Amino acid sequence: MKVVLWIPLKLNNQRLPGKNTMVLNGRPLCDYVFSTVSEMDPCIDKYIYCSDDAIIPYIKPYYDKGLIYLQRDNCLDGDKVKGLEIVERFVEDVDADIYILAHVTQPFIKRDSIEKALNKVMSEDYDSAFSAIRLQDYMWLDGKPLNYNPTDIIRTQDMEPIYMETGAFFIFEKKVFTEMGRRIGIKPYVCEVDQFEAIDIDDMNDFKFAEAVARYRDENKDVMI
Question: In this predicted model, what pLDDT tens digit does every residue of 89-109 receive, in sequence order?
Fold first, then answer.
């Protein structure tokens, strides 16, 4: 069974230009996930899917750990390009039985989380997996309570949890995408991650928050799980 991990990456981000290589607590943002995935099973091919070879110097330190630069068409860098279009092109470019799609904008995702989800899919009990956080709180939608009765309020710990995708990774069998056009199949494993792993960087406020978290984690390595 061939497993491929890939990281789509562009250098012309609109909301925060250049964010994927911005220095986050002394390291380029992309380096966090590059380092994490490089420690995974060496039998897994690992691709950085980017149109701009300016990313190569950031990948080079991990060449000996299996990271591969794969140049993509720069038409995929457009602001109106949908994520599934990029998935489609990569699946055409690289054949595999199982794909692991990861993103550099969530720098604190753990290797253990990715590997746990991958093992669930490889067991064939699930056709896909994704990272998510558990939400057990009073939720509203369109001006109405979504998951509780205001006249009979229960404790949050007794609520049925709701899971929110974090986007740190998606793992799917090839047929999930080729037959359904999706990265989450009909029998997904929901991989619960912690609040640190769920941090996602879209804009400068997100970046500053992530930098504060990175400093905190570095200063508390001995007590962090």
Answer: 999 999 999 999 999 999 999
- In the three-class reduction of DSSP (H, G, I as helix; E, B as strand; rest coil), residue 23 is classed as strand
| Ordered structural domains, the chain, with CATH | 3-132+165-219 (3.90.550.10)
DSSP classification of residue 63: G
Distance (Å, whole) CA 41 – CA 51: 26
Taking the model in full, what pTM does it have? 0.92
Residue 5 pairs with which residues in a beta bridge? 46, 100
CA-wise closest residue to 13 among 201, 175, 205: 201
* 78 in Cβ contact with 14 (< 8 Å): no
Element (H, E) at 5: strand 3-8
* Radius of gyration from C-alpha coordinates of the chain: 19
- Read off the pLDDT of residues 157-206 as tens digits, 9 standing for 90 and up: 999 999 999 999 999 999 999 999 999 999 999 999 999 999 999 999 99
**Alpha helices in 39-184, H assignment, sequence order:** 56-59, 83-93, 111-122, 174-180
pLDDT in tens, 63-88: 999 999 999 999 999 888 999 999 99
Which two structure tokens, joined as six digits, stand for 158?
Answer: 């007794």
DSSP letter string over 159-221?
Answer: SPPEEEEEEEEEEEEHHHHHHHS-SS-SSEEEEE--TTTT----SHHHHHHHHHHHHHHHHTT
